Amino acid sequence: MTLEIRGKWALVTGASRGIGKRIARGLADLGCNVVLHSRDAAHTRELEGELAGKGIRVSAVSGELSDQAAVDRMLDDTIAASGGIDLLFNNAAIMTPFRASHLQTPADDYRLSFEVNVISPIRITYRLLPTMLERRFGRIVQVTSGIQDQPELMAYAASKAALDKFVRDMAPSLRGTGVLMNLLDPGWLRTDLGGPKAPNDVESVLPGALVPALVDGEVHGVLFRAQDYARPAAR
Question: Does any domain span residue 184?
Answer without folding.
Answer: yes
